[in-house]
Write a structure and sequence with these properties.
44% of the residues lie in helices and 17% in strands. With 177 residues, the protein is of the alpha/beta class. The chain is globular and about 55 Å long. It starts with a helix and ends in an 11-residue tail after the last helix.
Length: 177
């Protein structure tokens, strides 16, 4: 039994590192750094990262993108033999999509006390009256996942402060600080 737990822990770390790589892609786009991968039969079959501002869409969350790609890859909306790895606890929309796609296991890097729907604000992944619930594992590479979020928002606050002080957005030509 101990070997199974250790193997699952190593596997979770391996795939959470992949989700973190996706989150760093979002970071480079000045998007909130959230990344997601979906694994089937021990292989990553879909990846996603936050692109809400880039795509100008409230639907461009990491989980939604990855679920769409995984469904296309498997040719089915049911992702019953998959595990979803995400760097930040899913919001209500993403938690609903996880339930709807029948993903049985969700591995979360860090929790989201302001908007998380896998246990922080609500737990939509384990509502007994729904026809599907997901097993939840939290805290996998938590420090790295939360550190990425903290760094992003620290830099965002600093940039907004500079913009306010200079009177114009920092990314416009001629406004380099």
């Amino acid at each position: 039994m101990g070997d199974i737990v250790l193997n699952t822990e190593k596997t979770d770390i391996k795939f959470m590192k992949e989700a973190i790589r996706q989150a760093k892609k979002a970071y480079k786009l000045d998007e909130t750094p959230i990344g997601c991968v979906i694994v089937h039969d021990g292989k990553v079959i879909a990846r996603g990262y936050n692109r809400r501002n880039t795509d100008k869409s409230p639907l461009a969350h990491a989980e939604i993108t990855a679920i769409r790609k995984a469904s296309r890859k498997l040719g089915d909306w049911r992702l019953e033999e998959c595990t979803l790895y995400v760097t930040l606890e899913p919001c209500q929309m993403c938690a609903g999509a996880i339930v709807q796609s029948r993903i049985p296991r969700v591995v979360i890097g860090c929790m989201n006390p302001k908007a998380g729907c896998a246990g922080s604000v609500l737990n939509l992944l384990q509502v007994e009256r729904f026809n599907h619930q997901a097993e939840i594992e939290t805290g996998v590479l938590e420090d790295e996942c939360s550190g990425l979020m903290k760094q992003f928002f620290k830099e965002l606050r600093e940039r907004k402060k500079r913009e306010k002080e200079s009177g114009c957005p920092a990314d416009e030509p001629g406004t380099e600080v």
